[in-house]
Amino acid sequence: MSGNWRPPSSTDVARAAGVSQSAVSRAFTPGARIAEATRARILEAAQALGYRPNLLPKILQTNRSGIVAVVVGGFYNPYFAMTLEAFSKALTAAGLQMMLVRVESDRILDGVVDQLAGYRVDAVVSALALTSQAAADQLSKLRIPIVTLNSDLAGDWIRSVSSDNFAAGEAAARLLRERGGTRFGFVAGPADSPAQVAREAGFAHGLATLGLPPATRAGGGYDYASGEQAARDLFSGAERPDALFCANDLAAFGVIDVLREDFGLSAPGDVLVVGFDNLDMAAWAPYRLTSFDQDVDAHVAVAMELLDLEAGATCVARTVPSRLVERESTRRG
Amino acid sequence: MSGNWRPPSSTDVARAAGVSQSAVSRAFTPGARIAEATRARILEAAQALGYRPNLLPKILQTNRSGIVAVVVGGFYNPYFAMTLEAFSKALTAAGLQMMLVRVESDRILDGVVDQLAGYRVDAVVSALALTSQAAADQLSKLRIPIVTLNSDLAGDWIRSVSSDNFAAGEAAARLLRERGGTRFGFVAGPADSPAQVAREAGFAHGLATLGLPPATRAGGGYDYASGEQAARDLFSGAERPDALFCANDLAAFGVIDVLREDFGLSAPGDVLVVGFDNLDMAAWAPYRLTSFDQDVDAHVAVAMELLDLEAGATCVARTVPSRLVERESTRRG
DNA sequence: ATGGCGAGTGAATAGCTATGCACACATTCG
DNA sequence: CGAATGTGTGCATAGCTATTCACTCGCCAT
Question: Which of A140, A142, A273 is nearest to A219 (CA)?
Answer without folding.
Answer: A273
